[in-house]
Fold this protein.
Amino acid sequence: MGLENFGRVSFTAEAKAADFVTYLEQGKVMATRCRKCGTKYFPPKVDCPKCLLSDVDWIEIKGSGRLNTYTVVNYGPSGFEDDTPYTLAIVDFRDIRTFGRLSKDIKENDIQIGMRLKVVPVKLPDDRISYEFQKAD
């Protein structure tokens, strides 16, 4: 399996980090960590840009993080036009910075820098899968 079922629009069917989709289907949101230098990546990278090696561990992103910044997208790129408006966010977990969409259940007036969020897999139409940030309990 590759990335053909990831996200709302898939621009590639195969990638080295295709295990990301398998983990999402198992209910886990994963990042990668280079075994040589320890750098963590999300979205996951299998080739470390620092070391130029392809030797990584998969690590699960658990618990809650804090909203660092966000932007509301009113005019989406090709393939995402019908999804607007949506909110993209950068969320800092204990030791990794993540990027993705905020749940549409979080209204724009309720968004606060520093708010606690969790990252969870979400099922999309047509048997597709992705992840989003939701309010942490």
Summary: The mean pLDDT is 88. Strands lie at 30-34, 40-41, 56-60, 65-73, 86-93, 96-101, 116-124, 128-135. The chain has one domain: 19-135. The chain is about 5% helix and 40% strand.
